[in-house]
Amino acid sequence: MAKYLGRGDDDVDGIVGKKARQSRYPSIHPFHAGTLLFTASQPFAELANYEYGDDLNAMAFQTNVFRDGQWVTETVNLQDALDASAVERLPSDPKHPEPPTLGVLTKTVVESPVTRWILPLSVRSTKHKDIAFIGDHFVQISELRKDGQIHEVVRTNGFGPRIRSAVVLGVGSDYGINSGSSADRIKSEDGSPQLRQPSTERDGSPTPQPGIPPQVLVLMLDNGDTVFLFLREKPDLTFEFVLSKHKLPRTIPYIGYHLAVDPSSRYMAASTPEGVFVVYELHSWTDLNTRYLKDGTFSPIRRIQFRTVQGVIHNMEFLFPRPEDDYHIILLLVVIRKERTNVEPVSRMVTYEWELGDSLKTVFHEEKTGNRLPAEHKMPILLIPLKFKTAFFAVSKNSIGVVKHALSGSPEYERLRTDMPKQTKFHNGKSEPLWTAWTRPVRLRKYFQRTDIIFLAREDGAIIFVEIDQREMVPSVINVGCLDTNINTAFATSYDIFSDVLIIGGDSGPGGVWRLAPRADLEQVNVTPNWSPVVDIATTYEPAISKDTNSRQRNGPSILARKPDSIFTASGRGYKGSITQWRSGIQAKIGLDIESGEPNKQAWIFPVQENGTSSLLGILTSPHSSRVLQFATDFSQVQEIEADDMALDLSSHTLFAAQLPGNIILQITEGCISMHGPTERARISFDELLSVPGIQIDKAHNLMDDILLSAQERDRAELFVVKQKGTVFSLATQWKQDGEVTAVTLFSVSGKHLAAVASINDGQPSLSIFSLSGDTITSTSLNMNGTSVDHSVGLEAVTSICAVNNDSKTTILVLGTRCGHLITIPVSSYESVQLNWVTETVGISPVEIFQAPQSLRSKTLAFASCDGNLIMLSNYTAAKRCFCTKSVVVPTDSNDLAMPSPQVHSIYSLDENLSGHDGHMSLLMLAGSRILMTDIWPQVGLVPRSMTLEGTPSRVIYSRTWKCLIVAMLKGDQPTLEFLDPETGAAISDASDKEKNSSEFISGLGHEGDRIYGLHEWLYVKDGRTFSFIIVTTKDGRLLIVSLKETQEMTDEGPVRRLKYWTRYKKWLSGPVSSVVGDADGLIFCMDRTLHWEVLDLVDKKLKPMKEYQLDSPAVQLKIVDDKIHALTLTNSLEIIDHRTGTGNAMSLLHTDQVARRTTHMLDIGTHNASSEAGPVTLLADYKNGFAGVWIPNGQDNHELQAVFEGLLPGSVRRFIKTWSRPPWVAANRSLRYGALRSSNDGAEMLGVGLDGALYQFTLIEVELWRLLCLIQTLAYRTPMLYPLYNPAINDDPVDDDAELEPQLHPRLMHIDGDILQRCAEDRMLEQIVGDGDGLDLFCEYLDGIEGGLCTGSFRDSTEEESRYSSYFEVAYDILEYLLAPAI
Q1: Can you give the pLDDT at residue 1212?
Q2: Cross-strand partners of 1202
Q3: How many angstroms separate the Cα of 191 from the Cα of each of 315, 487, 687, 1003?
Q4: pLDDT at residue number 50
Q5: Number of helices (H), then strands (E), in the chain
Q6: Lateral strand order in the sheet of 1073-1078
Q7: Cβ distance 696 to 676 under 8 Å?
Q8: CA-based nearest residue to 954, from 433, 565, 428, 533
Q9: DSSP character for 42?
Q10: Are strands 930-942 and 921-927 parallel, antiparallel or unpaired?
């Protein structure tokens, strides 16, 4: 049989053993495909010895040929095959469409949360409790602070190859509480910690001078490179990474699988499992520091030595020498080798020892035999070096033992005799749980001179504490308890004043931080998010109708504002199984949550000092009254203060409140002004102050000693300016404003106070700026286009105004309107000027603007509330006259991870940060009747919401019919379904039998050992009516049709929605049913490798078999497109099958892929309009981090799918989704530009999620844009400026700087890595990357070609060369900013 390898030389790589699909098509000659692999009777080596000539006729092989209407096997000689290949192909039919030429841009939107190792270290100084979190592609340095929380310091990623292992290198502390350089350790790829530092400083060991920190982090990458990194403080007091790289002289596969550093930090060893190890001799810390201070270089490696051993290196570690022998180096290997045939392999403990400075070549000249390990420790999971007597713990599957005197000829083995903790509920698996990690806690130096201690962690969360005395070397064990998480290799300890702090990264679920105080139980103080491994994803996306899929819509928004879809992923195992909602924004941790019992419109809170006691005083206002609450500074107590105890007016609605110097609180209500302070108290009514009987103020604001008031009449408003001096108030001036005044504020420009008044008159909103004497400085009508001279579509009334001080000469007025618009107006003069502004859509409900804390870092910020979302406005840009960054603030409760985001309608920010942490903000939030005191964290990222399942999920879908999440999961070992309300996170399922009685499982589910493979919502159409069923298929061959009915259940809190579900029909098949899909009248499912089409018989009420089709491998996904079956198979990529035409019970194969891909998922990308340049294209993901976009030649039966683009990602995509995920203010103001194309007919985004929890976005781009981005990407690969952040997908082949720069069209070159472009854009590196040679000429040429030259037409012909080139680069940065904007 001939095996197809590809279409030509360019397609050979990565294609193995694909059957010659061409042989199924009568119109395609089998030899036109390309290269063939011969499987003739004689060996291929013999065929290779033939010379061309007459002997070609003797070279024969067999292949399938279509003869007389049937397939037959024929023997064909090579000469006939070559002659057939030389036949000129017929020209393609011009009527048939050609595949589109498209590029695709990918970008990592969310990095994987998986942490492989957690290492305590002093990477800044000994004063900081730094902790390194290390994943496959990232390093994050964080700090444990007094509140018990882990605070991020700095993060970096993009090392290229995966991080295989990590270690801490360096000297310990000289004073106080220290880790004895012993809390630092390695955990390598096999899970075993590897590094130990000495318990005490050596006599004469160097003390680092200002320069390099006490310790550095060392990473071993998959390609064998070693990366050294530490932190350096920048002038702005932030930190940056300093990086150094060492490359081995030759490639050694899997080097770094084990990694260890000796206690002196003068040697490091890395090994492979196959028996190769490398020992690195390192420079002394003094020499390293001296060189760094001299020339800024850091290269620790002095020389290296290679060594091979016979057998498998199962583990490797450096042991502690005797304290008096600090020059002694001891390397321990556990080697497993087969010493005799027909006998099990033997495990031996091999030691190499030498003194500091000895020749490594001499030390490793001979291979050592070593001592045989006891049977119970023949494959130890962990080796834990102890500080005394060259001893170590050997932790194995069923035993923990102490090995003493490892250097002697007869080491002593002593088993740890104690009762181990019982298996916990968090264990997943049938065998006993394994010990996975260990760490050495921090103690005083003197303590470590006589005692060694460790924490040992098990995968099911159990922790034991082991203490061993120096003299007797007898361990004592204490069962610490069980953590509410699973534990892998990411396990470490730190400390606070009184407690050990355990830090866990989490395995198949969240991790966290636990505090262990003396004689106390474990206390969890923090949760570390972890939404991996992701097994499935669902979204609330519903397609919207797009009027014109081909419209570029350059000058207008591409879509209307709408609520973003919610994204849910299924992850975790056992009790840690969960559904995670992906929410992007800034986390606001709730410290206090009070139910006030009635809605609050607005609130203010101020720190006060009374009788020597500090507290917080909060003013809450409802529509007709006010309340005052007093909070303890730690929020341990809250009490309401009665009106008799305050000078404030609590009988009226509060309009404004502020804190004046001297702890004085100023309150303005509808009827009076009140002051309350330690000694000063006053109240004056507006009747008396303004001399207007019965006047009612409805708007007010204060700035220093000026107060602005507004009182509305029928068709105009009266404005008053009141001066305050001490407790005396006096009217300064007043004037009238036509229309209805809707918002007011006072602000300052160049030291002069001004009043901004928003009003609406005859339906037209306007903004007027007055001096405090009542003179009009400027007045303008507000509209969408942002200039007073433009008479475009107007806006609705302004609801709020906030002034933000950008600098001493410019104030930014931020306005919110009644219809969801945000208006930004810079004011830089107190004289008459024309105002210009920017209008943005942020939602559909009224927008309220709030001031941010007036600190140095937050004074240029503001907050906006719209549609229940709180939005932080930051990064104001004068050139664009708007806040370029808008981030949703997401309140979270660490005690309730499933809590939905509260609908926040008002906030007040404290100028004083209550947490005391730099960059944090304290906000009082109002959400209906709830009062929330929150701490705003500075990082923007994913804020996941986790809904616990107490089971292992395998599939999740969102039902548009029932508006709920449907989860296929395992409870114990039994499959079942769970229905979740996506808003509340509550389980609403009610399993029932045929009589509608509640039961634990529905009929067909609950069988032990079975698994749910397929889950699909089937919309069955009958007599014009649509019925919704849930289709379930299982591993054991069950196919279930499930019916649902919505009911209500009465509880103490009122009626609760429930979904009763039961099995309406079930069918038992002979093999596993891997996938299923439904159309209007039937089901298509794959049982083993057979595709079945069955139609529902309305008479018998059963599924009636119609047709079958034999696939080459099971279908992992099925869908119906244009009444054709798209079957994505496990090993043979995508096949298009017609199940309705043809005779008998056979289906027809229409199209198949040219490449045998091991695929995981598919989804259409691009528009489906026949005249569109963007599709249709089907996006495929495979197991080896690859993806491809293939074009289906519809209407051209028996033609293969053609690849439009192919590429690689840092990780494999598990599932694709289509979703409207951008926030409203981005989606409503974003139009198609620069050559970006729609990913779907309605403009939805295309995302892909990996098993490790990473999220990628995919953007289709035109060829003109692709040429520009490909050029930038090519030039970026060639520059050393990106080091070490380079594309993980590219190989280590040397780059040819003389290679052609002009991009060539080929499917494998159409992928653009957005992560590389992101790096170029963030660091503004385009000018350095492009240079001034041929690259610059092509750069400008390709920019001229984008959008027909529209982007560069205004400056293209400029004679000022420097200015012209600068404009080109600015356009390029704008393009990158547009394309790389995250999709969530």
Answers
A1: 94
A2: 1191
A3: 10, 11, 77, 43
A4: 36
A5: 12, 90
A6: 1073-1078, 1082-1087, 1090-1097, 1102-1110
A7: no
A8: 533
A9: S
A10: antiparallel
DSSP assignment, residue 178? B
The distance of Cα 918 from the centroid of its chain, to the nearest Å, equals: 24
Is residue 721 within 8 A of residue 710, CB to CB? The reply is: no
Residue-level length of the chain: 1384
DSSP symbols for 1292-1309:
-PPP-TTS--S----GGG
Strands 584-595 and 882-892: parallel
Residue 152, CA atoms < 13 Å, CB-side half-sphere = 16
239 class by beta-carbon count within 10 Å (0-12 exposed, 13-18 middle, 19+ buried)? middle
3-state secondary structure 51-100: CCCHHHHHCEEEEEEEECCEEEEEEEEHHHHHHHHCCCCCCCCCCCCCCC
Residue 875's CB is within 10 A of a number of other CB atoms, namely 13
**CA 149, 152, 153: angle at the middle one, nearest 5?**
130
Tens-digit pLDDT profile for residues 1000-1055: 999 999 999 999 999 999 998 888 888 899 999 999 999 999 999 999 988 877 88
Q: Tokens standing for 424?
A: 């916990």
pTM above 0.85, yes or no: yes
Q: How far apart are CA 440 and CA 1148, in angstroms?
A: 65
Pair type for strands 681-685 and 699-703 = unpaired
What is the predicted pLDDT for the residue at 17?
A: 36
Strand partners, 1346: none
Alpha-carbon distance 875 to 884, whole Å? 5
With vertex at residue 1114, the alpha carbon angle to CA 1109 and CA 1116, rounded to the nearest 5 degrees, is 115
The CA distance from 1070 to 904, in Å, is: 55
Residue 80: φ, ψ to 5°: -65, -35
CB distance 1225 to 557 below 8 Å: no
Helix-, strand-, coil-residue percentages of the chain, each rounded to 5: 10, 45, 45
Taking CB atoms within 8 Å and a gap of at least 24, the contacts of 16-20 are 16/1156, 17/1156, 18/1132, 18/1154, 18/1155, 18/1156, 19/1112, 19/1132, 19/1156, 20/63, 20/64
Residue of 1277, 1266, 1274, 1378 whose CA lies nearest to 1321: 1378
Q: Which pLDDT value is given to residue 793?
A: 55
Residue type present at position 280: Y
Rounded to whole angstroms, how far apart are CA atoms 259 and 251? 17
Distance (Å, rounded) from C-alpha 972 to C-alpha 955? 16
Round to whole Å and give the CA distance between 845 and 839: 15
Spatial contact of 264 and 329, defined as CB atoms under 8 Å apart:
yes
Identify the residue whose tokens are 């000994």. 126
Strands 930-942 and 1025-1034: unpaired
From 631, 848, 628, select the one nearest 758 (Cα to Cα).
848
Residue at token pair 């033609």: 1199
Instruction: Provide the pLDDT for residue 501.
Output: 94
Question: In which residue ranges of the chain is pLDDT below 50?
Answer: 1-58, 66, 69, 87-90, 92, 173-209, 546-560, 789-792, 1174, 1285-1295
Asked whether the beta carbons of 36 and 5 are under 8 A apart, the reply is yes
pLDDT digits (tens, 9 = 90+) for 1257-1300: 999 999 999 999 999 999 988 887 765 544 433 444 444 555 57
Alpha carbons within 13 A on the beta-carbon side of 1083: 28
Q: What does the H/E/C string look like for 1190-1208?
A: EECCCCCCCCCCEEEEEEE
As a whole number of angstroms, the distance between CA 61 and CA 49 comes to 16
Pair of tokens at residue 213? 């920190």
How buried is 536 (Cβ within 10 angstroms: 0-12 exposed, 13-18 middle, 19+ buried)? buried
Question: Which phi and psi angles does 1018 have, rounded to 5°?
Answer: -105, 120
Q: Positive or negative CA dihedral for 575, 576, 579, 581?
A: positive
- For residues 1042 and 1013, the answer to whether their CB atoms sit within 8 Å is no
Please give the DSSP secondary-structure letter assigned to residue 141.
E
